[in-house]
Here is the input.
Amino acid sequence: MTQITGTTRVYAILADPIHHVKTPQGINNLFQQAGFDAVMVPIHVAPSGLATVLQGLREMRNFDGCVVTVPHKTAVIPMCDALTLEARHIGAANVLHRTADGKLLGGMLDGEGFVAGLRSQGHEPQGLSVYLRGAGGAASAIAFALARAGASRLTIANRNTSKALELIKRISSLYPNLPLSVGSDNPQGYQLVVNATSLGLSEGDALPIDASLLEPKQLVAEIIMQPVETALLRAAIARGCPVHYGAPMLSSQIALMAAFMRGDANMVSDAT
Amino acid sequence: MTQITGTTRVYAILADPIHHVKTPQGINNLFQQAGFDAVMVPIHVAPSGLATVLQGLREMRNFDGCVVTVPHKTAVIPMCDALTLEARHIGAANVLHRTADGKLLGGMLDGEGFVAGLRSQGHEPQGLSVYLRGAGGAASAIAFALARAGASRLTIANRNTSKALELIKRISSLYPNLPLSVGSDNPQGYQLVVNATSLGLSEGDALPIDASLLEPKQLVAEIIMQPVETALLRAAIARGCPVHYGAPMLSSQIALMAAFMRGDANMVSDAT
Here is the structure.
Protein backbone atom coordinates (compact mmCIF):
# COMPACT_ATOMS: atom_id res chain seq x y z
CA MET A 1 0.00 0.00 0.00
CA THR A 2 1.12 3.52 -0.72
CA GLN A 3 0.44 6.17 1.89
CA ILE A 4 -3.14 7.30 2.50
CA THR A 5 -3.50 11.10 2.52
CA GLY A 6 -6.29 13.66 2.36
CA THR A 7 -6.44 13.34 -1.44
CA THR A 8 -6.83 9.55 -1.49
CA ARG A 9 -10.09 8.36 -3.10
CA VAL A 10 -12.00 5.79 -1.06
CA TYR A 11 -13.53 2.48 -2.20
CA ALA A 12 -15.17 -0.27 -0.15
CA ILE A 13 -16.49 -3.80 -0.15
CA LEU A 14 -19.80 -4.43 1.64
CA ALA A 15 -20.31 -7.89 3.13
CA ASP A 16 -21.63 -9.84 6.13
CA PRO A 17 -19.54 -11.62 7.31
CA ILE A 18 -16.52 -9.68 6.10
CA HIS A 19 -13.40 -11.43 7.46
CA HIS A 20 -12.94 -13.79 4.49
CA VAL A 21 -13.11 -11.26 1.63
CA LYS A 22 -10.11 -11.13 -0.69
CA THR A 23 -11.18 -8.26 -2.94
CA PRO A 24 -9.42 -5.45 -0.99
CA GLN A 25 -6.07 -7.17 -1.54
CA GLY A 26 -6.73 -7.56 -5.28
CA ILE A 27 -8.11 -4.05 -5.80
CA ASN A 28 -5.45 -2.30 -3.68
CA ASN A 29 -2.75 -4.19 -5.52
CA LEU A 30 -4.25 -3.04 -8.84
CA PHE A 31 -4.60 0.58 -7.61
CA GLN A 32 -0.96 0.57 -6.55
CA GLN A 33 0.29 -0.92 -9.80
CA ALA A 34 -1.75 1.62 -11.76
CA GLY A 35 -0.48 4.49 -9.62
CA PHE A 36 -3.99 5.49 -8.45
CA ASP A 37 -4.20 7.48 -5.21
CA ALA A 38 -7.03 5.24 -3.97
CA VAL A 39 -7.75 2.64 -1.28
CA MET A 40 -10.38 -0.06 -0.72
CA VAL A 41 -11.50 -0.85 2.82
CA PRO A 42 -13.84 -3.58 4.12
CA ILE A 43 -17.26 -2.52 5.45
CA HIS A 44 -19.04 -5.04 7.62
CA VAL A 45 -22.74 -4.28 7.38
CA ALA A 46 -25.72 -6.47 8.30
CA PRO A 47 -28.79 -6.59 6.02
CA SER A 48 -30.68 -4.35 8.46
CA GLY A 49 -28.05 -1.61 8.09
CA LEU A 50 -27.45 -1.76 4.33
CA ALA A 51 -29.75 1.10 3.27
CA THR A 52 -28.35 3.37 6.00
CA VAL A 53 -24.76 2.63 5.02
CA LEU A 54 -25.53 3.35 1.36
CA GLN A 55 -27.12 6.68 2.34
CA GLY A 56 -23.93 7.53 4.20
CA LEU A 57 -21.75 6.54 1.24
CA ARG A 58 -23.77 8.84 -1.04
CA GLU A 59 -22.70 11.77 1.16
CA MET A 60 -18.99 10.89 1.12
CA ARG A 61 -17.61 13.09 -1.65
CA ASN A 62 -14.30 11.26 -1.96
CA PHE A 63 -16.04 7.87 -2.21
CA ASP A 64 -16.20 6.51 -5.76
CA GLY A 65 -17.73 3.07 -5.48
CA CYS A 66 -17.87 -0.31 -3.85
CA VAL A 67 -18.05 -4.01 -4.39
CA VAL A 68 -21.20 -5.64 -2.97
CA THR A 69 -21.14 -9.25 -1.94
CA VAL A 70 -23.01 -11.86 0.14
CA PRO A 71 -25.72 -11.31 1.36
CA HIS A 72 -26.38 -7.89 -0.20
CA LYS A 73 -26.30 -8.44 -3.97
CA THR A 74 -30.09 -8.67 -4.40
CA ALA A 75 -31.07 -6.30 -1.59
CA VAL A 76 -29.01 -3.48 -3.08
CA ILE A 77 -31.04 -3.36 -6.31
CA PRO A 78 -33.93 -1.13 -5.13
CA MET A 79 -31.41 1.11 -3.32
CA CYS A 80 -29.63 2.10 -6.56
CA ASP A 81 -30.51 5.19 -8.58
CA ALA A 82 -29.70 3.43 -11.84
CA LEU A 83 -28.77 -0.08 -12.97
CA THR A 84 -26.94 -1.52 -15.93
CA LEU A 85 -29.08 -3.69 -18.22
CA GLU A 86 -27.28 -6.73 -16.86
CA ALA A 87 -27.94 -5.89 -13.19
CA ARG A 88 -31.58 -5.18 -13.96
CA HIS A 89 -32.14 -8.45 -15.82
CA ILE A 90 -30.27 -10.49 -13.23
CA GLY A 91 -31.91 -8.70 -10.32
CA ALA A 92 -28.61 -8.37 -8.47
CA ALA A 93 -25.62 -6.03 -8.38
CA ASN A 94 -22.10 -6.75 -7.20
CA VAL A 95 -20.55 -3.38 -7.90
CA LEU A 96 -21.65 0.24 -7.42
CA HIS A 97 -20.32 3.49 -8.81
CA ARG A 98 -20.99 6.75 -6.96
CA THR A 99 -21.39 9.69 -9.31
CA ALA A 100 -20.10 13.14 -8.37
CA ASP A 101 -23.61 14.20 -7.36
CA GLY A 102 -24.11 11.25 -5.00
CA LYS A 103 -26.10 8.89 -7.21
CA LEU A 104 -25.45 5.14 -7.00
CA LEU A 105 -25.24 3.13 -10.20
CA GLY A 106 -25.39 -0.67 -9.86
CA GLY A 107 -23.72 -3.20 -12.13
CA MET A 108 -23.30 -6.97 -12.15
CA LEU A 109 -19.92 -8.33 -13.19
CA ASP A 110 -20.00 -11.86 -11.75
CA GLY A 111 -20.98 -13.40 -15.07
CA GLU A 112 -18.50 -11.39 -17.08
CA GLY A 113 -15.84 -12.30 -14.49
CA PHE A 114 -16.67 -15.98 -14.77
CA VAL A 115 -16.41 -15.92 -18.56
CA ALA A 116 -13.17 -13.91 -18.45
CA GLY A 117 -11.86 -16.42 -15.91
CA LEU A 118 -12.68 -19.34 -18.21
CA ARG A 119 -10.87 -17.63 -21.07
CA SER A 120 -7.87 -16.84 -18.84
CA GLN A 121 -7.47 -20.61 -18.40
CA GLY A 122 -7.81 -21.30 -22.13
CA HIS A 123 -11.48 -22.31 -22.13
CA GLU A 124 -13.56 -20.48 -24.76
CA PRO A 125 -17.28 -20.86 -23.92
CA GLN A 126 -18.49 -19.86 -27.41
CA GLY A 127 -20.24 -22.84 -29.02
CA LEU A 128 -20.24 -24.99 -25.88
CA SER A 129 -23.27 -26.82 -24.52
CA VAL A 130 -23.63 -25.81 -20.87
CA TYR A 131 -25.13 -27.43 -17.81
CA LEU A 132 -25.52 -24.85 -15.02
CA ARG A 133 -26.41 -25.88 -11.49
CA GLY A 134 -28.17 -23.19 -9.49
CA ALA A 135 -30.56 -20.32 -10.21
CA GLY A 136 -29.64 -17.70 -7.60
CA GLY A 137 -27.79 -14.43 -8.10
CA ALA A 138 -24.42 -15.87 -9.11
CA ALA A 139 -26.03 -18.52 -11.36
CA SER A 140 -28.20 -15.88 -13.05
CA ALA A 141 -25.18 -13.69 -13.77
CA ILE A 142 -23.25 -16.63 -15.19
CA ALA A 143 -26.23 -17.76 -17.30
CA PHE A 144 -26.60 -14.33 -18.91
CA ALA A 145 -22.85 -14.03 -19.48
CA LEU A 146 -22.59 -17.51 -21.06
CA ALA A 147 -25.57 -16.69 -23.28
CA ARG A 148 -23.86 -13.46 -24.34
CA ALA A 149 -20.57 -15.31 -24.88
CA GLY A 150 -22.26 -17.59 -27.40
CA ALA A 151 -22.96 -20.88 -25.60
CA SER A 152 -24.75 -23.24 -28.04
CA ARG A 153 -27.36 -24.37 -25.51
CA LEU A 154 -27.96 -23.88 -21.81
CA THR A 155 -29.61 -26.17 -19.29
CA ILE A 156 -30.36 -24.91 -15.81
CA ALA A 157 -30.84 -27.33 -12.93
CA ASN A 158 -32.04 -26.18 -9.55
CA ARG A 159 -33.59 -27.80 -6.48
CA ASN A 160 -36.41 -25.29 -6.82
CA THR A 161 -37.52 -25.87 -10.42
CA SER A 162 -39.77 -22.84 -10.63
CA LYS A 163 -36.74 -20.64 -9.95
CA ALA A 164 -34.92 -22.31 -12.84
CA LEU A 165 -37.93 -21.76 -15.11
CA GLU A 166 -38.13 -18.14 -14.08
CA LEU A 167 -34.44 -17.63 -14.92
CA ILE A 168 -34.92 -19.36 -18.28
CA LYS A 169 -37.81 -16.98 -19.04
CA ARG A 170 -35.61 -13.94 -18.31
CA ILE A 171 -32.76 -15.27 -20.45
CA SER A 172 -35.03 -16.11 -23.38
CA SER A 173 -36.37 -12.56 -23.42
CA LEU A 174 -32.86 -11.31 -24.21
CA TYR A 175 -31.59 -14.36 -26.15
CA PRO A 176 -34.67 -15.77 -27.94
CA ASN A 177 -32.61 -18.03 -30.23
CA LEU A 178 -30.67 -19.83 -27.49
CA PRO A 179 -31.95 -23.37 -26.71
CA LEU A 180 -32.83 -23.40 -23.00
CA SER A 181 -34.12 -26.16 -20.77
CA VAL A 182 -34.53 -27.26 -17.17
CA GLY A 183 -32.18 -30.03 -16.09
CA SER A 184 -32.01 -32.76 -13.45
CA ASP A 185 -28.98 -33.62 -11.32
CA ASN A 186 -27.58 -35.54 -14.30
CA PRO A 187 -24.92 -33.49 -16.13
CA GLN A 188 -24.38 -35.98 -18.97
CA GLY A 189 -24.21 -34.70 -22.52
CA TYR A 190 -22.84 -31.20 -21.86
CA GLN A 191 -19.36 -29.89 -22.65
CA LEU A 192 -19.26 -27.46 -19.73
CA VAL A 193 -20.66 -28.25 -16.26
CA VAL A 194 -20.84 -25.31 -13.84
CA ASN A 195 -21.67 -25.39 -10.14
CA ALA A 196 -23.10 -21.99 -9.23
CA THR A 197 -24.68 -23.10 -5.94
CA SER A 198 -23.05 -22.72 -2.53
CA LEU A 199 -22.85 -26.50 -2.10
CA GLY A 200 -19.20 -27.26 -1.47
CA LEU A 201 -18.49 -24.21 0.70
CA SER A 202 -18.89 -26.26 3.88
CA GLU A 203 -17.26 -29.56 4.71
CA GLY A 204 -19.91 -32.25 4.47
CA ASP A 205 -22.15 -30.48 1.94
CA ALA A 206 -23.97 -32.78 -0.48
CA LEU A 207 -22.58 -32.79 -4.03
CA PRO A 208 -24.52 -30.34 -6.23
CA ILE A 209 -24.84 -32.92 -9.04
CA ASP A 210 -24.59 -36.67 -9.51
CA ALA A 211 -20.82 -36.70 -10.04
CA SER A 212 -20.76 -40.44 -10.75
CA LEU A 213 -22.25 -39.63 -14.18
CA LEU A 214 -19.46 -37.24 -15.24
CA GLU A 215 -17.57 -38.17 -18.39
CA PRO A 216 -13.83 -37.55 -18.94
CA LYS A 217 -14.29 -34.92 -21.67
CA GLN A 218 -16.54 -32.62 -19.65
CA LEU A 219 -15.03 -29.44 -18.24
CA VAL A 220 -16.24 -29.05 -14.64
CA ALA A 221 -16.20 -25.52 -13.25
CA GLU A 222 -16.65 -24.12 -9.74
CA ILE A 223 -17.31 -20.62 -8.49
CA ILE A 224 -16.39 -21.50 -4.89
CA MET A 225 -12.94 -20.14 -4.06
CA GLN A 226 -12.59 -21.58 -0.56
CA PRO A 227 -11.96 -24.52 -0.33
CA VAL A 228 -9.88 -24.37 -3.49
CA GLU A 229 -10.73 -27.98 -4.30
CA THR A 230 -14.37 -28.72 -3.52
CA ALA A 231 -15.75 -32.26 -3.22
CA LEU A 232 -17.23 -31.79 -6.71
CA LEU A 233 -13.84 -30.89 -8.21
CA ARG A 234 -12.21 -33.85 -6.44
CA ALA A 235 -14.88 -36.17 -7.85
CA ALA A 236 -14.45 -34.67 -11.33
CA ILE A 237 -10.68 -35.11 -11.23
CA ALA A 238 -11.17 -38.71 -10.08
CA ARG A 239 -13.34 -39.31 -13.15
CA GLY A 240 -10.72 -37.83 -15.47
CA CYS A 241 -12.43 -34.50 -16.16
CA PRO A 242 -10.57 -31.24 -16.71
CA VAL A 243 -11.58 -28.78 -14.00
CA HIS A 244 -11.81 -24.99 -13.64
CA TYR A 245 -11.29 -23.54 -10.16
CA GLY A 246 -13.24 -20.75 -8.47
CA ALA A 247 -10.43 -18.23 -8.15
CA PRO A 248 -10.22 -16.92 -11.76
CA MET A 249 -13.81 -15.60 -11.58
CA LEU A 250 -12.70 -13.04 -8.98
CA SER A 251 -9.17 -12.43 -10.21
CA SER A 252 -10.47 -11.79 -13.74
CA GLN A 253 -13.11 -9.49 -12.30
CA ILE A 254 -10.77 -7.21 -10.32
CA ALA A 255 -9.92 -4.98 -13.27
CA LEU A 256 -13.57 -4.90 -14.41
CA MET A 257 -14.70 -3.92 -10.90
CA ALA A 258 -12.08 -1.19 -10.62
CA ALA A 259 -13.12 0.28 -13.97
CA PHE A 260 -16.82 0.19 -13.05
CA MET A 261 -16.34 1.72 -9.59
CA ARG A 262 -14.24 4.52 -11.07
CA GLY A 263 -17.02 5.30 -13.56
CA ASP A 264 -15.32 4.12 -16.74
CA ALA A 265 -17.69 5.30 -19.47
CA ASN A 266 -17.63 2.01 -21.39
CA MET A 267 -18.57 0.07 -18.30
CA VAL A 268 -21.52 2.15 -17.18
CA SER A 269 -22.97 3.34 -20.49
CA ASP A 270 -25.93 0.95 -20.49
CA ALA A 271 -27.40 2.25 -17.25
CA THR A 272 -30.98 3.41 -17.31
CA MET B 1 0.93 0.60 5.16
CA THR B 2 0.46 -3.08 5.84
CA GLN B 3 -2.04 -4.96 3.69
CA ILE B 4 -5.76 -4.28 4.15
CA THR B 5 -7.79 -7.48 4.47
CA GLY B 6 -11.29 -8.50 5.53
CA THR B 7 -10.27 -8.40 9.19
CA THR B 8 -8.85 -4.85 9.12
CA ARG B 9 -10.63 -2.42 11.46
CA VAL B 10 -11.64 0.87 9.83
CA TYR B 11 -11.14 4.43 11.13
CA ALA B 12 -11.81 7.75 9.41
CA ILE B 13 -11.32 11.49 9.53
CA LEU B 14 -14.32 13.69 8.64
CA ALA B 15 -13.58 17.08 7.13
CA ASP B 16 -14.61 19.60 4.46
CA PRO B 17 -12.34 20.30 2.65
CA ILE B 18 -10.33 17.12 3.13
CA HIS B 19 -7.26 17.33 0.88
CA HIS B 20 -5.00 19.03 3.43
CA VAL B 21 -5.53 16.68 6.40
CA LYS B 22 -2.43 15.05 7.84
CA THR B 23 -4.03 12.84 10.48
CA PRO B 24 -4.34 9.68 8.32
CA GLN B 25 -0.57 9.64 7.84
CA GLY B 26 0.05 10.02 11.57
CA ILE B 27 -2.58 7.51 12.69
CA ASN B 28 -1.71 4.89 10.06
CA ASN B 29 1.94 5.21 10.98
CA LEU B 30 1.04 4.66 14.65
CA PHE B 31 -1.23 1.69 13.80
CA GLN B 32 1.57 0.10 11.81
CA GLN B 33 4.19 0.64 14.49
CA ALA B 34 1.82 -0.81 17.10
CA GLY B 35 1.02 -3.81 14.89
CA PHE B 36 -2.73 -3.00 14.79
CA ASP B 37 -4.68 -4.46 11.86
CA ALA B 38 -6.40 -1.10 11.27
CA VAL B 39 -6.54 1.71 8.71
CA MET B 40 -7.69 5.34 8.68
CA VAL B 41 -9.24 6.78 5.53
CA PRO B 42 -10.32 10.36 4.73
CA ILE B 43 -14.05 11.06 4.43
CA HIS B 44 -14.99 14.26 2.65
CA VAL B 45 -18.42 15.26 3.93
CA ALA B 46 -20.20 18.61 3.69
CA PRO B 47 -22.14 19.98 6.70
CA SER B 48 -25.41 19.00 5.00
CA GLY B 49 -24.33 15.35 4.84
CA LEU B 50 -22.75 14.97 8.28
CA ALA B 51 -25.72 13.40 10.09
CA THR B 52 -26.30 10.92 7.26
CA VAL B 53 -22.65 9.88 7.19
CA LEU B 54 -22.66 9.36 10.96
CA GLN B 55 -25.78 7.19 10.65
CA GLY B 56 -23.96 5.10 8.07
CA LEU B 57 -20.86 4.80 10.27
CA ARG B 58 -23.03 3.53 13.15
CA GLU B 59 -24.05 0.59 10.96
CA MET B 60 -20.48 -0.33 9.94
CA ARG B 61 -19.58 -3.09 12.38
CA ASN B 62 -15.86 -3.00 11.68
CA PHE B 63 -15.71 0.79 12.15
CA ASP B 64 -14.29 1.83 15.52
CA GLY B 65 -14.08 5.60 15.42
CA CYS B 66 -13.10 8.78 13.67
CA VAL B 67 -11.42 12.11 14.01
CA VAL B 68 -13.73 15.08 13.37
CA THR B 69 -12.30 18.33 12.11
CA VAL B 70 -13.26 21.63 10.46
CA PRO B 71 -16.14 22.47 10.03
CA HIS B 72 -17.83 19.62 11.94
CA LYS B 73 -16.51 19.84 15.51
CA THR B 74 -19.50 21.73 16.90
CA ALA B 75 -22.17 20.26 14.64
CA VAL B 76 -21.30 16.73 15.70
CA ILE B 77 -22.21 17.35 19.36
CA PRO B 78 -26.00 16.75 19.15
CA MET B 79 -25.36 13.73 16.89
CA CYS B 80 -23.44 11.83 19.58
CA ASP B 81 -25.05 9.35 21.96
CA ALA B 82 -22.69 10.34 24.77
CA LEU B 83 -20.00 12.97 25.38
CA THR B 84 -17.00 13.23 27.64
CA LEU B 85 -17.19 15.98 30.25
CA GLU B 86 -14.64 17.95 28.25
CA ALA B 87 -16.58 17.73 24.97
CA ARG B 88 -19.79 18.72 26.75
CA HIS B 89 -18.25 21.76 28.44
CA ILE B 90 -16.44 22.89 25.31
CA GLY B 91 -19.44 22.21 23.08
CA ALA B 92 -17.30 20.54 20.44
CA ALA B 93 -15.85 17.11 19.71
CA ASN B 94 -12.84 16.21 17.59
CA VAL B 95 -12.88 12.45 18.07
CA LEU B 96 -15.60 9.78 18.15
CA HIS B 97 -15.57 6.20 19.34
CA ARG B 98 -18.14 3.75 17.96
CA THR B 99 -19.17 1.15 20.52
CA ALA B 100 -19.90 -2.43 19.49
CA ASP B 101 -23.64 -1.70 19.53
CA GLY B 102 -23.34 1.29 17.21
CA LYS B 103 -23.37 4.15 19.71
CA LEU B 104 -21.17 7.19 19.09
CA LEU B 105 -19.21 8.69 21.97
CA GLY B 106 -17.69 12.13 21.44
CA GLY B 107 -14.52 13.47 23.01
CA MET B 108 -12.43 16.63 22.65
CA LEU B 109 -8.66 16.24 22.65
CA ASP B 110 -7.50 19.48 21.01
CA GLY B 111 -6.73 21.12 24.35
CA GLU B 112 -4.99 18.10 25.77
CA GLY B 113 -3.03 17.82 22.52
CA PHE B 114 -2.00 21.47 22.72
CA VAL B 115 -0.76 21.08 26.30
CA ALA B 116 1.03 17.81 25.47
CA GLY B 117 2.61 19.59 22.49
CA LEU B 118 3.86 22.43 24.70
CA ARG B 119 5.39 19.91 27.10
CA SER B 120 6.97 17.96 24.23
CA GLN B 121 8.90 21.14 23.40
CA GLY B 122 9.93 21.72 27.02
CA HIS B 123 7.29 24.32 27.89
CA GLU B 124 5.41 23.50 31.13
CA PRO B 125 2.19 25.59 31.28
CA GLN B 126 1.66 25.07 35.02
CA GLY B 127 1.97 28.43 36.80
CA LEU B 128 2.10 30.51 33.61
CA SER B 129 -0.01 33.59 32.99
CA VAL B 130 -1.75 33.06 29.64
CA TYR B 131 -3.14 35.36 26.96
CA LEU B 132 -5.40 33.38 24.60
CA ARG B 133 -6.63 34.90 21.36
CA GLY B 134 -9.90 33.40 20.10
CA ALA B 135 -13.03 31.92 21.66
CA GLY B 136 -14.14 29.31 19.11
CA GLY B 137 -13.95 25.52 19.37
CA ALA B 138 -10.16 25.21 19.35
CA ALA B 139 -9.70 28.17 21.71
CA SER B 140 -12.28 26.74 24.11
CA ALA B 141 -10.54 23.38 24.17
CA ILE B 142 -7.16 25.03 24.80
CA ALA B 143 -8.62 27.28 27.51
CA PHE B 144 -10.03 24.32 29.45
CA ALA B 145 -6.83 22.32 29.04
CA LEU B 146 -4.61 25.20 30.19
CA ALA B 147 -6.90 25.70 33.20
CA ARG B 148 -6.63 22.00 34.00
CA ALA B 149 -2.85 22.10 33.51
CA GLY B 150 -2.58 24.79 36.20
CA ALA B 151 -2.15 28.12 34.40
CA SER B 152 -1.93 30.90 37.03
CA ARG B 153 -4.33 33.24 35.19
CA LEU B 154 -6.06 33.28 31.83
CA THR B 155 -7.10 36.21 29.69
CA ILE B 156 -9.26 35.61 26.64
CA ALA B 157 -9.34 38.13 23.80
CA ASN B 158 -11.80 37.85 20.97
CA ARG B 159 -13.19 40.16 18.29
CA ASN B 160 -16.64 39.20 19.57
CA THR B 161 -16.34 40.05 23.27
CA SER B 162 -19.58 38.36 24.30
CA LYS B 163 -18.20 35.05 23.02
CA ALA B 164 -15.10 35.54 25.18
CA LEU B 165 -17.29 36.32 28.20
CA GLU B 166 -19.41 33.25 27.55
CA LEU B 167 -16.27 31.07 27.43
CA ILE B 168 -14.97 32.64 30.64
CA LYS B 169 -18.28 31.80 32.31
CA ARG B 170 -18.03 28.16 31.28
CA ILE B 171 -14.41 27.90 32.48
CA SER B 172 -15.15 29.54 35.82
CA SER B 173 -17.90 27.01 36.51
CA LEU B 174 -15.27 24.23 36.43
CA TYR B 175 -12.28 26.26 37.72
CA PRO B 176 -13.75 28.83 40.13
CA ASN B 177 -10.35 29.77 41.62
CA LEU B 178 -8.64 30.62 38.31
CA PRO B 179 -8.33 34.40 37.64
CA LEU B 180 -10.09 35.01 34.31
CA SER B 181 -10.52 38.18 32.29
CA VAL B 182 -11.35 39.55 28.86
CA GLY B 183 -8.38 40.97 26.97
CA SER B 184 -7.72 43.47 24.20
CA ASP B 185 -5.30 42.97 21.28
CA ASN B 186 -2.45 43.88 23.61
CA PRO B 187 -0.65 40.75 24.84
CA GLN B 188 1.73 42.56 27.20
CA GLY B 189 2.24 41.13 30.67
CA TYR B 190 1.65 37.45 29.95
CA GLN B 191 4.20 34.63 29.90
CA LEU B 192 2.39 32.58 27.27
CA VAL B 193 0.60 34.11 24.24
CA VAL B 194 -1.53 31.72 22.19
CA ASN B 195 -3.20 32.37 18.85
CA ALA B 196 -6.21 30.04 18.61
CA THR B 197 -7.94 31.92 15.79
CA SER B 198 -7.66 31.03 12.12
CA LEU B 199 -5.88 34.32 11.35
CA GLY B 200 -2.61 33.35 9.70
CA LEU B 201 -3.99 30.43 7.67
CA SER B 202 -4.25 32.59 4.56
CA GLU B 203 -1.60 34.83 3.07
CA GLY B 204 -2.55 38.43 3.79
CA ASP B 205 -4.57 37.75 6.97
CA ALA B 206 -4.40 40.49 9.59
CA LEU B 207 -2.26 39.69 12.63
CA PRO B 208 -4.42 38.29 15.47
CA ILE B 209 -2.75 40.59 18.03
CA ASP B 210 -0.71 43.76 18.12
CA ALA B 211 2.65 42.04 17.64
CA SER B 212 4.60 45.28 18.01
CA LEU B 213 3.90 45.07 21.76
CA LEU B 214 5.46 41.59 22.22
CA GLU B 215 8.34 41.41 24.69
CA PRO B 216 11.36 39.12 24.28
CA LYS B 217 10.53 36.83 27.22
CA GLN B 218 7.00 35.95 26.06
CA LEU B 219 6.46 32.49 24.56
CA VAL B 220 4.28 32.89 21.45
CA ALA B 221 2.34 29.80 20.37
CA GLU B 222 0.37 28.97 17.23
CA ILE B 223 -2.13 26.22 16.49
CA ILE B 224 -1.90 26.79 12.71
CA MET B 225 0.17 24.04 11.10
CA GLN B 226 0.17 25.33 7.54
CA PRO B 227 1.98 27.68 6.91
CA VAL B 228 4.55 26.40 9.40
CA GLU B 229 5.66 29.96 10.11
CA THR B 230 2.71 32.33 10.28
CA ALA B 231 3.07 36.11 10.10
CA LEU B 232 2.56 36.20 13.88
CA LEU B 233 5.44 33.77 14.50
CA ARG B 234 7.68 35.73 12.13
CA ALA B 235 6.85 38.95 14.01
CA ALA B 236 7.47 37.22 17.36
CA ILE B 237 10.86 35.90 16.22
CA ALA B 238 11.77 39.38 14.97
CA ARG B 239 11.02 40.75 18.43
CA GLY B 240 13.20 38.08 20.07
CA CYS B 241 10.41 35.90 21.48
CA PRO B 242 10.66 32.13 21.77
CA VAL B 243 7.93 30.54 19.61
CA HIS B 244 5.93 27.32 19.64
CA TYR B 245 4.78 25.97 16.26
CA GLY B 246 1.40 24.48 15.38
CA ALA B 247 2.54 20.97 14.51
CA PRO B 248 3.10 19.52 18.03
CA MET B 249 -0.59 20.00 18.93
CA LEU B 250 -1.55 17.37 16.33
CA SER B 251 1.52 15.14 16.61
CA SER B 252 1.08 14.97 20.39
CA GLN B 253 -2.59 14.20 19.89
CA ILE B 254 -2.18 11.23 17.53
CA ALA B 255 -1.68 8.67 20.29
CA LEU B 256 -4.51 10.22 22.36
CA MET B 257 -6.86 10.08 19.35
CA ALA B 258 -5.96 6.48 18.58
CA ALA B 259 -6.61 5.43 22.17
CA PHE B 260 -9.96 7.26 22.26
CA MET B 261 -11.18 5.91 18.92
CA ARG B 262 -10.29 2.38 19.97
CA GLY B 263 -12.35 2.77 23.14
CA ASP B 264 -9.51 2.85 25.68
CA ALA B 265 -11.32 2.74 29.01
CA ASN B 266 -9.22 5.51 30.60
CA MET B 267 -9.97 7.85 27.74
CA VAL B 268 -13.73 7.43 27.59
CA SER B 269 -14.62 6.84 31.23
CA ASP B 270 -16.03 10.32 31.86
CA ALA B 271 -18.73 10.02 29.22
CA THR B 272 -22.28 10.63 30.32
Remarks:
- Chain A touches chain B at residues 1-8, 10, 15-16, 18-22, 24-25, 28, 39-46, 48-50, 52-63 (CB under 8 Å).
